[in-house]
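sry for the spam today, last one i promise. C-alpha cells for design, 79 residues
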C-alpha cells in the first residue's frame, strides 16, 4: 500500500457530514461481527439522513447505505 510504514495515508478523508459531497472518501464502520474495524469508501450519494457508499474497485457493483455522521455506520446486512 502506498506510504505503508511511513505514517502517511493515501486517502484524504472527509469527517464533516455537513460538507459531504459525492466523490469524498470516508472512513466508515460496520455493525455486528465487523464492529471496530475501519473501512474506506467513496460517497456515491449524499442525502439529508443517509449516504450511499461504494467500498471500492474490488466490489464495483456494491452499494452500502450508511448513516450521515462523521464516520458513517453501515448495518452488516448491507454487506
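last one done:
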Amino acid at each position: 500500500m502506498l506510504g505503508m510504514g511511513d505514517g502517511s495515508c493515501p486517502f484524504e478523508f472527509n469527517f464533516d457530514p455537513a460538507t459531504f459531497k459525492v466523490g469524498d472518501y470516508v472512513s466508515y464502520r460496520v455493525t455486528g461481527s465487523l464492529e471496530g474495524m475501519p473501512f474506506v469508501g467513496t460517497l456515491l450519494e449524499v442525502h439529508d439522513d443517509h449516504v450511499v457508499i461504494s467500498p471500492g474497485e474490488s466490489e464495483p457493483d456494491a452499494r452500502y447505505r450508511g448513516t450521515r455522521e462523521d464516520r458513517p455506520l453501515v448495518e452488516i446486512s448491507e454487506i
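The CA atoms of residues 6 and 16 lie 26 Å apart. ok im logging off now
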